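Recall that a protein's primary structure is simply its ordered list of amino acids. Everything else, from secondary elements to tertiary packing, is in principle encoded there. The following example makes that idea concrete.
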Amino acid sequence: MAQKDVGNKVPIYKLKTTKEVMNYYDEWGENDKYNKDMADWNYTGPKETVNTFLKYEINKDALIFDAGCGTGLVGLELKKFGFNNFHGADLSEKLLSTIPLNLYKKLLKLDLNEPTNLKDDNYDAIFCVGTFTFGHVRPNALNEFIRITKKGGLICFTINEGIYKDYGFDKKIKELNKKNLWSEMEFFKSDYIASKDVNAWLGLYKVK
């Protein structure tokens, strides 16, 4: 079977550089267009990932880091289930500016492709939803997520099916498994943006 051509499904997937992506988000964030498009496209990444997380985390006070938080869709989903203690980070100032006031305890502008100055073993859980995709964040960010997560903490993420092998996420996950840095709790193909025929791998791992 021929591999699905996911790269042509959504306009932003065709962009290659960080500058191009950020410029696109500057326009996409205007007049709530990003959120409207996500609703129109039936983008289920945040809901699917939070629902998977709920199977393993019952502590509503868990400190959560939302990496690539965009307009706060994961935060809104977490809030529905009584979680309120979360921080968010994104490289797009435009998207950060659209997040509902007081949804996150802290918001940071960060390039997740670079090492951060966040503390070791600080978070109970990390979310990275919709960020491992074309022209966005690369596999090495997973090492950083493990570093800032407490022992026994959870890392929940989606990887767009179109970049899973091309960007080397398959190799990175095997490497982290081999080094025994985390253990797999869930890993499956999710709907993600079903209306566009774009799926994602959804992973949930426990840090050792």
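The domain at 6-207 is CATH 3.40.50.150 (Rossmann fold). The helical segments are 18-28, 33-40, 45-53, 73-80, 93-97, 141-148, 169-178.
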